[in-house]
């Protein structure tokens, strides 16, 4: 009888803290030992020449989230979304359970469980999107749900069907403080966006490109500052998500320098796409492929985002995977979207490309260290969202969610190579160096050389516990 189920031998292990050459012994899906000459195993994987890192944790993805009836629906559910995740080296995702206004949160969560159960290739949790913070939601449902492992909420400062006013934001922040949960804030100013949208429409500026014009960095900066002020007022930590550029980054940095507990997240599109992508070919419909919120900005913003990453302003790097078809009757430009950018569904697919692009642009170009890469793609997500010390590192006791990464492999991202259900990737043609060659989910090889070897249903729901992290 062998000592272990699996040994990963000869690789260079990378954690958020260290880089070291070590074998990894796995039993029952958990890392049980690291070091050399560990013993015998039923199966061995040769990792020589490869980096061995904790599987990615993508704490910002949208899967199986319904859009308004009669409008294009999100195309990845848990099966295709987590398939795409593992192909890109991500082994845990935290999508959202969105409360429809008027609905209870408990029923919302049960609904999302039924969408996910038995459908996932990798482990998952849920953030709760609060659209209707009633006394019942704040007083009873949220405290009970946090205790049940839903330790983070998202609130929106824009979007007709989700926006909260300042009083409601304050109520949710205070509730999160009491129950020790982390609030993620979508910071864009609702009134300013509506005003700009109507003005652009009156001027006949309705192409997808004007989506970006309707919500420039100023509206993101204003909302970020307002959210920060509310958080400071109540002394509650918040996370400003999908920060797109210099203006909001500087607000977060300013707050952090003053000792206000503000965290920041940024995403692939803000280091790899620009507002000009939304022009398409000569302002045609294809610009809609890049429509998301906040919109991609410009090269100065890319620089600012890297400044924030290197300076510790951002703790997490996510994809904000939110996929829609481009072509066909469910496509981004169907129905009213032809009449104005206002109706183009917001969101891009990207869970599969997050680590590839971040590695290539970050580690590959000398902007961040390998250890920072692991922190920003895995460890910090685990810590902030209540998954540590189960996920997010390579050490005895952690789940054997592990990726083997070839730092020298050069690839070009193409839709043909993708594992999502969307019919395009916004990163088509992007060249990267560094690539995940094998993904293990709790000790099982889930993807090898782009071929899915895991089974749908391998992924389990993660009950999270954030209380240990809150100071
Ligand atoms: O455009 C985006 N980001 N769509 C997803 C929803 C959100 O705000 O994160
Ligand atoms: Zn958002
Ligand atoms: Zn590009
Ligand atoms: Zn999102």
What integer is the average pLDDT? 97
Q: Using DSSP, what is the number of strands?
A: 19
> Rg from C-alpha positions?
21 Å
How much helicity do the residues have? 25-40%
CATH evolutionary superfamily of the largest domain: Metal-dependent hydrolases
| Main structural class | alpha/beta
CATH topology of the largest domain: TIM Barrel
The CATH top-level class label of the largest domain: Alpha Beta
| N-end to C-end Cα span | 46 Å
Main sheet makeup: 9 strands, mixed
Ligand identities: N-(aminocarbonyl)-beta-alanine, zinc ion
**Overall body shape:** globular
Number of domains as seen in the coordinates: 2
Strand fraction equals 15-25%
Task: Give the helix tally.
Answer: 12
- CATH architect. name of the largest domain: Alpha-Beta Barrel
Model regions low in confidence, pLDDT < 50 over at least 5 residues: none
Task: Explain what you see.
Helix 4 (166-179) crosses helix 7 and helix 7 runs parallel beside helix 8 (246-257). The chain has 2 domains: 4-53 and 394-452, Urease, subunit C, domain 1; 55-372, TIM Barrel. The radius of gyration is 21 Å and the shape is globular. Strands 1, 2, 3, 4, 5, 16, 17, 18 and 19 form a 9-stranded mixed beta sheet that branches. It has a 7-stranded parallel beta sheet with strand order 8-10-11-12-13-14-15. With 471 residues, it is α/β, with parallel strands linked by helices. The chain is 29% helix and 22% strand. It has helices at 78-87, 105-116, 135-147, 166-179, 190-202, 210-214, 217-234, 246-257, 269-272, 299-310, 354-363, 370-384, and strands at 4-14, 19-27, 30-35, 41-46, 51-54, 56-58, 90-93, 96-98, 123-124, 127-129, 152-156, 182-186, 238-243, 262-267, 316-318, 402-412, 431-441, 444-448, 451-452. One zinc ion is lined by residues 186, 241-242. N-(aminocarbonyl)-beta-alanine (URP) binds at residues 62, 186, 242, 292-293, 320, 322, 346-347. This is D-hydantoinase. Residues 51-445 form the Amidohydrolase-related domain. Pfam families: Amidohydro_1. Its cofactor is Zn(2+).
